[in-house]
Amino acid sequence: MSQSSDTTSYKDIKQTVLDRIRSGVWKPDTLLPNEQALALEFSCTRTTVNRAMRELAEEGFLERRRKAGTRVLRAPHRQARFTIPLIRDEIEAQGGAYRYALVSAETVDAPEWLTARLALKQAQRVVHVRCMHYSNNTPFQFEDRCIVVQSVPQVEQADFSTLGPNEWLVETVPFTNVELAFLASRADEVVAGFLDVPRDEPVFTAERITWLQGQPVTFAKLYFAAGYRMTTRF
Amino acid sequence: MSQSSDTTSYKDIKQTVLDRIRSGVWKPDTLLPNEQALALEFSCTRTTVNRAMRELAEEGFLERRRKAGTRVLRAPHRQARFTIPLIRDEIEAQGGAYRYALVSAETVDAPEWLTARLALKQAQRVVHVRCMHYSNNTPFQFEDRCIVVQSVPQVEQADFSTLGPNEWLVETVPFTNVELAFLASRADEVVAGFLDVPRDEPVFTAERITWLQGQPVTFAKLYFAAGYRMTTRF
DNA sequence: CAGTGGTCTAGACCACATG
DNA sequence: ATGTGGTCTAGACCACTGT
Q1: Which of A76, A85, A203 faces B184 most closely, judged by CB atoms?
Q2: CB contact at 8 A, B24 and A213
Q3: Which of these, A19, B25, B78, B130, could form a disulfide with B60 (CB 3.0-4.6 Å)?
Q4: B80: which chain A residues are within 8 Å (Cβ-Cβ)?
Q5: What tens digit of pLDDT does each residue of A205-214 get?
Q6: Higher confidence at residue B45 or residue B24?
Q7: Cα of B221 vs its chain's centroid, Å
Q8: Strand C neighbours with CB under 7 A?
Q9: Between residues 175 and 204 of chain B, which touch chain A (CB distance below 8 Å)?
């Protein structure tokens, strides 16, 4: 169907299986025929069936266990996937003009809460950067970030006056592990001022901790402008 | 390494490639050797290399294009994956005791904003349900939901006094498409009352629209208790 | 046009979990 | 012990796309 001619593609199989689930032919908890039987039905090899079913399982529709077989999941444990773009890309994708502005940058001793949050063994020097991201000169995001000097020594020579710390980090420390959290916070005086909203306004906030091979690199709080929505479809 | 003996697994290749990216051997924008060359290097078939590289591309580390080859992505367009469990499971996973309470359920005409939001052709009857989810008798989430009668006629006979509308829907309409958004909203009097927080408190909120084969099924606003964080690692 | 990844076949061995 | 999915090989043809 999707291919040019007579062979059955793993995509065809995925589509057919999804249709059967949708239409109720295969209801939740149903045990599906095994791969060999499906290969026979679809006139293809077991390899092809395997790929189709494996992907459907990854996408959260099926559960597969050796010997037990493949069954339809009743409560789709499906996962929402949010793509996390660079903020510049996000703004430009919306047709906005991106503008960056540095607010402050200074090297300080990590405060106690940060030492605890990053599980540092002892207080360390960090570069504390605050900056703004604008879309068409309207505040879009206020960023408050600390970068651990010991993990990224070059940071003390970095110039954040024109390049944002996130873009700098992406270029300097390309590979990282991340913990990301979304929450609703209340605008304090500083945040309210930069985002141009009233004090105590609810602010959609992201907290992001980044590690490089187990070493904590940076802690960032990203405060989004009023009305921001993090959206996905699946 | 991961397998019992002498063959090279696609997992080994993924690990090796990741290590090379991490350590800077293959920097961002680097063009990688083609699959045939890698198969030679790893002493395996191209099929195995293909699976490893394909998965790394899906996970956002690489970009692959026919003829152009495979390159390391500079700004990892990596995606945060949030698993969306049933709220009962989420609470019980935290060791809490789940309790459900119906607040109200009535059949009404869809208000204008909902008609627009769901792109209904005309105003329709909807079942409007409001309910609470508790963890250890502490408010965890206030749910305000409308279910389109025409899309799910059985809803008029449903009894939401003991079973939540989400669990009911999952059993009744197992397969759906979803639009999910997270935002920060301000507690109005109703929400503040049910969540037991002050008025105007920032509240982490999820909006969820669900379709069944193109037909809008339900619109839900989920208001989370103070301090809620939606967290993920990658 | 030519090089790269995308996919399929046919067959094999194996890991794992269940009865 | 046995059935199921998990993976690998060896080879082939094809789709796409940059030159």
Answers
A1: A203
A2: no
A3: B78
A4: 81-82, 84, 178, 180
A5: 999 999 988 8
A6: B45
A7: 15
A8: A 3, 7-12, 43-48, 51, 65-68; B 3-5, 32, 34-36, 46-47, 50, 53-54, 57, 64-70
A9: 175, 177-186, 200-204
The pLDDT of residue A107 is 95
* Torsion, CA A194, CA A195, CA A196, CA A198, rounded to 10: -110
Check residue A84 and give its pLDDT.
78
- A residues 23-42 lying closer than 8 A (beta carbon) to B: 27-28
Chain centroid to CA B128: 24
Name the closest nucleotide to B32, judged by C1' and CA.
C4
Task: Look at residue A4 in the predicted model and tell me its pLDDT.
Answer: 44
Report the pLDDT value the prediction gives residue A6, as an integer from 0 to 100. 67
Whether residue A7 is predicted with pLDDT greater than 80 in this model: the reply is no
Both structure tokens of B37: 């060359």
Q: What are phi and psi of B187, to 5 degrees?
A: -65, 120
Helix residue ranges, H only, B69-221 = 87-93, 112-117, 165-172, 189-195
- Chain B nearest CA to A36, separation (Å): 21
Whether nucleic acid strand D comes within 7 Å of the CB of B8, the answer is yes
Residue with the larger pLDDT of the pair B121 and B225: B225
For residues B10 and B52, is the Cβ–Cβ distance under 8 A? Answer: yes
Distance B45 CA to D13 C1' (A): 17
Q: Which residues of B touch A81 (CB under 8 A)?
A: 79-82
Domains delineated in chain A: 10-72 (1.10.10.10), 87-224 (3.40.1410.10)
DSSP annotation of A161 reads: T
Q: Looking at per-residue confidence, does B11 or A234 come out higher?
A: B11
| Rg of chain A on CA atoms, in Å | 24
Residue with tokens 């970068």: A147
Q: What is the pLDDT of residue A182?
A: 95
Assess whether A34 (CB) lies less than 7 A from strand D.
Answer: yes
Cβ atoms of A32 and A71 closer than 8 Å: yes
| Strand D–CB A3 distance below 7 A | yes
Strand partners, A62: A72
Higher pLDDT, A144 or B86: A144
Q: What is the pTM of this model?
A: 0.85
Does the structure show a pLDDT above 90 at B108? yes
Mean pLDDT over residues B126-145, rounded? Answer: 96
